[in-house]
Specification:
The chain has helices at residues 20-30, 45-48, 55-71, 89-98, 103-107, 110-118, 125-128, 130-140, 153-170, 215-223, 240-253, 257-263, 269-296, 298-327, and strands at 7-12, 38-43, 79-83, 145-147, 178-180. By secondary structure, the protein is mainly alpha-helical. Bound molecules: tryptophanyl-5'AMP.
């Protein structure tokens, strides 16, 4: 709760190019929540450096991501859209919460296990305490809800545990956040290996639809998507490729799975894949156009960066001061 309104926080990493998974699992839902909540959407650049980054590239991607938030439909006046690195409260609260998190809890994080096996030459402490910084992001804004894809569920659980532990020592300091995971699109799978989630870091470009892919590329990637050989459009666990395409089509068109099965009852995979590709291309087209327009307007984007960093900092500082006082740090003499 902030200023009497329920509050919401979410963020994305500025690493790699956003995929259809990021859009359908998170960004698309974000756009529907701006009236109900006081919303904070962050470009989490502090999290990005847990993996080695090229500085110029990171800066470029971070700006593109912030622009994309707006292009996807987030109103930057109603929603606070900002860079994590512009609000020092994230790192400061992160440190405090490190002292309320057990190594045993962090050892269980599946994302840490995945990432440390992928980056075995750089298993740094930041990668390990990544979920604590994420808890700080969320708790800093007294967030009631956190809209994410289902891969972030474990991180949400640890954020809740940390908040409850802190509150049990110091009283009601933090709001306990609830995950908000959409019914469709919460876990979009790779087009080349439907047992694996679609990911920005996949080395095979055919595995993911990128938000900036042009319609021909999108349709080509869907045509090549790995499926099975029974040629029936049916939603079943033993048909993960088709199930994934049906999820994508459902999220892109708003049609239910039953409606989709009916619509394609007498079609083969070729027609279905084409329909999925076309539906996705038509969802992404207006976002791409808006992105191109916004990217040219440097002064406008700069003004949003400035105003929203100040707004985020105001609320972050409020929570941080409260926490600092609770743990016993001396007050600043002003
Ligand atoms: P990130 O950048 O990996 O992903 C951003 C959002 O996209 C969702 N997502 C997916 N949803 C469905 N299908 C997929 N294949 C798929 N891939 C990604 C993610 O669930 C996420 O919602 N740790 C976070 C960023 C973060 C954050 C936070 C999120 C930092 N602090 C505080 C919420 C609250 C991350 O790496 O997301």
């Amino acid at each position: 709760m902030l200023d009497g309104k329920k509050s919401l926080f979410s963020g994305m990493q500025a690493t790699g190019t956003l995929t259809l998974g990021n859009y359908l699992g998170a960004l698309k839902n974000w756009v529907t929540l701006e009236e109900e909540y006081q919303c904070f959407y962050c470009v989490v650049d502090l999290h990005s450096i847990t993996v080695r980054q090229d500085p110029a590239e990171l800066r470029k991607r971070a700006r593109a991501l912030l622009t994309l938030y707006i292009a996807a439909g987030l109103d930057p006046v109603k929603n606070c859209i900002y860079y994590q690195s512009h609000v020092s409260g994230h790192a400061e609260l992160g440190w405090i919460l490190n002292c309320f998190t057990y190594m045993g809890e962090l050892n269980r994080m599946t994302q840490f296990k995945d990432k440390s096996s992928k980056h075995s030459d750089n298993i740094n402490a930041g990668l390990y305490t990544y979920p604590v910084l994420m808890a700080a992001d969320i708790l800093l804004f007294q967030s009631d809800v956190v809209p994410v894809g289902s891969d972030q569920k474990q991180h949400l659980e640890i954020a809740r545990d940390i908040a409850e532990r802190f509150n049990s020592v110091y009283g009601d300091v933090f709001t306990i956040p609830e995950p908000y995971i959409g019914k469709v699109g919460a876990r979009i799978m790779s087009l080349q290996d439907p047992e694996k989630k679609m990911s920005k870091s996949d080395e095979n470009p055919n595995a993911s639809i990128y938000l900036m892919d042009d319609p021909d590329t999108i349709i080509r990637k869907f045509k090549r998507a790995v499926t099975d050989s029974d040629n029936q459009i049916r939603y079943a666990d033993e048909k993960p490729g088709i199930k994934n395409l049906m999820d994508i089509y459902s999220a892109a068109t708003g049609k239910t799975i039953a409606e989709i099965e009916k619509e394609f009852a007498s079609s083969g995979y070729g027609d279905f894949k084409l329909a999925v590709g076309e539906s996705v291309a038509s969802v992404l087209k207006p976002i791409q156009t808006r992105f191109d327009e916004l990217s040219k307007d440097k002064a406008y984007i700069d003004s949003i960066i400035k105003a929203n960093a100040e707004k985020a900092d105001y609320y972050a500082t409020k929570t941080l001061r409260k926490v600092q006082k609770k743990v016993g740090f001396p007050e600043k003499i002003r």
